[in-house]
Amino acid sequence: MSAPLLEVAGLHAWYGESHVLHGVDLHVDEGEMICILGRNGMGKTTTLRTIMGILRKRQGAIRFAGRDMMSVPLHRTARAGLGFVPEERGIFATLSVEENLLLPPKVAEGGMSVEEIYALFPNLKERRNSQGTKLSGGEQQMLAMARILRTGARCLLLDEPTEGLAPVIINAIGEVLRKLKARGMTVVLVEQNFRFASKVADRFYLMDHGRMAAEFPVAELEAQMDMLHRELGV
Amino acid sequence: MIFGVPVQALMGQLLVGLINGSFYALLSLGLAVIFGLLRVINFAHGAQYMLGAFVALLLLTVGGVNYWFALILAPLFVGLFGAIVERTMLSRLYKLDHLYGLLFTFGLALAIEGTFRYFFGASGKPYAAPAQLTGAVNLGFMFLPIYRGWVVIASLIVCFAVWFMIEKTRLGAYLRAATENPVLVQSFGINVPLLLTLTYALGAGLAAFAGVLAAPVYQVSPLMGTNLIIIVFAVVVVGGMGSILGAIVTGYMLGVVEGLTKVFYPEASNIVIFVIMAIVLILRPAGLFGKDA
Q1: Which of the two ends of chain A, N or C, has the fewest CB atoms closer than 10 A to its terminal CB?
Q2: Could you say which protein family the record assigns here (chain A) (predicted)?
């Protein structure tokens, strides 16, 4: 069995004095799509930000593609092949849609070309000269994902892509994720909406108070429903 | 006669205003670029302007390097100096309150100006305009000293080039994006700390370019930047902190307004820019071109 593409062990992280991750363990195989579930404030977003290296006050181990990432500075993390799509999407207001799309430098071969991206997201092509933040919420989410897809990143850290979006847009994002999976993209998805996640993810983690409380494959999702309803309060 | 003022006097002051405006525009542009990305109010800007003029003077008197080379070399030297200052000192202050950056650059300005006063004295030293740009042309309604025309044209070209670089190129897109969200830009794999260093160097280099342009117009003296920089801060406030286009347009505009005030109500010419600043701050606190945060 080959080593996982991304492996996190005993990860602790702090916001200032506040200890927020208490020993996170997770692993993702190449081409796999995992989903981290959990209530607000349990450390899901923090886990992604710490893996990416945005949160620097951290201890433990992060290995990506066989490489120790703990000492890698933030601006080299992307070069290793990790791409981050933040919850707030991070579309730049002073850049046009196309400038936003072309902003992240290519880190490896095998990323999508601009033509492929415009074929996947026709709205973006239509509005490529608009100001980035003039797009609708769904379009901004598409743009935030699209700009990472162009870079050739091997693993996408995706923070709540469906938050605040209409069902028809959520379906479209699900469609995009399935296409990415078909291309062999590895994805770490953070979601509150596990109905959406159940259609795309291979495996689930449940996060509670800064550590992983449970782990199960999608096949066991039905069996875990009672527990999930209890834990997520839905 | 226009409004009881001789055309020649009016045109003369308009030209003086345009020239002052050229320096305001170049200097406030550098301040705006630095403030936009580094969130540092660069009080050393006047000292960097003075350094540019002095480097040109020393290049000429010690090295025999002429004006045209100085116009390129002085901004490079001062830009390099700025890069070293940013890397070794200023960058350590980003995590602290913005006030520390302001205090540091203010102290740096005092130290640089004090050092130059110690070695060169406070009196101004003349710097001759290059032979190609001496003399004047008759425009019919007035005589235009060629060097002064050159100052306006050169500053317009450089302001346009910087605006183009920031608004229309890939590097400029990095800069604009990093101004909005430096952490996310860095997570894309862009070396934001390097971008900060280059930006500070660019701002310092622009100030030095203005300093070389100014050397033949004003005299070269250690304190030449201190008087100017106060006005330039007012220009930046009127234009809107961090607005590139705002800094350029407001620079020229306020230079001209100041010049016209000298014609119509000379007593107010020293304070007109500050009066405008006060009015703008009351009516549009974010500045004429600033976006409300």
Answers
A1: N
A2: Belongs to the ABC transporter superfamily.
